Design the sequence.
């Protein structure tokens, strides 16, 4: 599949990386967080399991906004940590007890809110419930420092160089 010509013809030979190939390349070097989006939950979970099984020792976690996908991954790949993504646009997003209850009900190992939702109060509540907090997507150093102070366990960013400088 051509993954580059939409940007410019000089990128026409760029190809999408298969998950199994990515896991193979990253083994021993990086943790890969796999976000599963739309599709049949059982098929998504099974396909992800096959890629993980083809790469023993790959460090992975799975995240999804879709409760049925989180549940399917938990059933199909019980050894992999699964996170429940949610957005500030969801009506229950600021109700800490409700967020944690929803995440637990679908078997999530950790909660993954949009970074603006990760207050110290929320992080404390999640940690008391035994759930780490992994936020998305924070791209500025000031917010990254505030998130660390609030007790966030992990940050997704588009700018890992900023994160490395901030957290060193």
Sequence:
């Amino acid at each position: 599949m051509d993954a580059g010509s939409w940007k410019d013809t000089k990128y026409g030979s760029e190809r999408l990386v298969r998950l199994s190939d990515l896991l193979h390349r990253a083994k021993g070097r990086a943790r890969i967080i796999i976000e599963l989006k739309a599709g049949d939950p059982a098929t998504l979970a099974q396909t992800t399991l096959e890629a993980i099984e083809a790469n023993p020792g790959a460090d992975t976690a799975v995240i999804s906004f879709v409760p049925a996908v989180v549940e399917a991954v938990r059933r199909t790949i019980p050894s992999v940590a699964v996170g429940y993504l949610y957005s500030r646009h969801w009506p229950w997003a600021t109700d800490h007890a409700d967020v944690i209850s929803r995440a637990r009900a679908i078997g999530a190992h950790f909660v993954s809110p949009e970074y603006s939702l990760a207050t110290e109060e929320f992080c404390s509540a999640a940690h008391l419930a035994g759930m780490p907090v992994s936020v998305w997507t924070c791209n500025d150093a000031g917010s990254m420092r505030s998130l660390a102070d609030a007790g966030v366990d992990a940050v997704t960013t588009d700018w890992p160089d900023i994160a490395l400088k901030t957290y060193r």
